[in-house]
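Open question from group meeting: does this chain pack into something compact, or does most of it stay loose? Before anyone orders reagents, we agreed to write out a predicted structure and look at it together. Recording both the input and the output here so the notebook holds the full record.
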Amino acid sequence: VQLVESGGGLVQPGGSLRLSCVASGFAFSGYGMSWYRQALGKERELVGTISSASVATYYADSVKGRFTMSRDNAKNTVYLQMNSLKSEDTAVYSCKVVGRVAWGQGTKVTVSS
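Structure tokens returned:
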């Protein structure tokens, strides 16, 4: 299993970013995918999960209504659209295959003016 995240960067409060995670080494279309984040000095937290066929999603209360997950099974890619970003969204964001213990290197998101 290989996961490569991208799309992070520096953004002002209220701004938007779209993160991507390209997966390989397994049957991507058959697995749910999750995004996690870990802020400096804090535990890793689940941001959201999307089912294999995109029929179901789950979001943490802290991002509900602002973040949206989607996936393109033809491209083995899962996305995280982040809108109305806040300083507390600053973290390293990583994707994960549901049921598998494998992590990418993560992509850093910094929300600051």
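Observations to bring back to the group:
The longest strand covers residues 17-24.
Residues 50 and 56 are 6 Å apart (CA to CA).
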